[in-house]
Design brief:
The protein has eleven helices and no strands. By secondary structure, the protein is mostly helical. 31% of the residues are buried.
Length: 291
């Protein structure tokens, strides 16, 4: 019996090894085919897009630095006017920051409710969890610029359409991220509060939010950075703020490139500033939660 078991062991090891190598080769084959399909789709998509452009990509590639060079050269020639231009467009910068701040606050509140109502084990109405999740999906699936264009048609140009559009998208995005954090919350405090007769809102406020608050605040700060950029981009479609002024300066062409340069400096400096500040606070929250 011992000879039989010892004699069969090499055969078993060999069969296992051959089976493993076959799986490895199969996975490599599938991975190579997937990569090949991806490359084919990328090349074909690029060719289709290039054919539909007014000018070919390769034909105009050598001109890619012409426009930035014109902006920088004119801004440098009129560099003495830069402080006055920065002061001129500072109110537009404040408007952009206000749009981002208000939309982030409203979106975070909406995302908070969507996350708690769409998380298993925490939802007040468990049967409606799929409904709240689909609402969150739809809200973040539609780009801000599409919502802003519709609202501008209804409400007219200004910061209000931009604020509403960004808030809707923010609520959907934060609702998804908040829900993932809430799914990892400990349910024992909720069970203890429920046993004492606490309401659903009291259970969420006292049993769940203290656990997830650091991550919620961290995600909200990150979203605030994104919304500053989004509010500037929406200015190009007439939603006000610094983006609107930048569009006008760029559309006017030579003669106002110094104004475009000043706006770029304001926008870049603001994004870098808030990125550093929010990153520092996010790190503090993360380290404090880890301790």
């Amino acid at each position: 019996m011992a000879d039989i078991s010892l004699g069969g062991a090499p055969q078993n090891v060999g069969s296992i090894q051959s089976h493993y190598m076959a799986q490895v080769q199969r996975s490599r084959l599938y991975g190579g085919l997937t990569l090949l399909v991806f490359i084919v789709l990328m090349v074909s998509g690029f060719n289709v897009a290039d054919d539909r452009n007014a000018g070919g990509f390769w034909d105009g590639l050598h001109q890619i630095g012409d426009y930035p060079a014109d902006v920088l050269s004119e801004a440098w020639e009129k560099r003495t006017d830069l402080p006055g231009l920065l002061a001129k467009y500072f109110p537009a910068l404040v408007e952009t920051i206000n749009i981002a701040a208000v939309s982030t606050l409203i979106g975070a509140i909406g995302g908070l409710f969507l996350s708690l109502l769409g998380t298993r084990g925490l939802a007040k109405w468990p049967r409606l969890i799929p409904l709240f999740r689909r609402i969150s999906d739809v809200m973040r699936a539609v780009p801000e610029i599409v919502i802003a264009l519709v609202l501008i048609f209804v409400l007219g140009g200004g910061p209000v359409p931009a604020m509403i559009a960004i808030a809707i998208h923010t609520a959907g995005a934060l609702g998804k991220m908040f829900s993932e954090v809430a799914e990892n919350a400990d349910l024992k405090p909720v069970e203890g509060l429920t046993s004492t007769g606490a309401t659903w809102s009291q259970c969420m406020l006292l049993g769940v939010l203290p656990q997830v608050a650091p991550n919620y605040v961290s995600y909200t700060l990150l979203r605030f950075e994104i919304n500053i950029r989004a509010s500037a981009i929406l200015g190009f479609v007439g939603a006000g703020g610094l983006g609107y002024e930048l569009r006008n300066a760029m559309a006017w062409g030579p003669g106002r490139f110094d104004e475009a340069g000043a706006i770029f400096i304001l926008l870049f400096g603001t994004i870098v500033f808030f990125d550093q500040v929010s990153s520092r606070y996010r790190n503090r929250l993360t380290e404090g939660q880890g301790q």
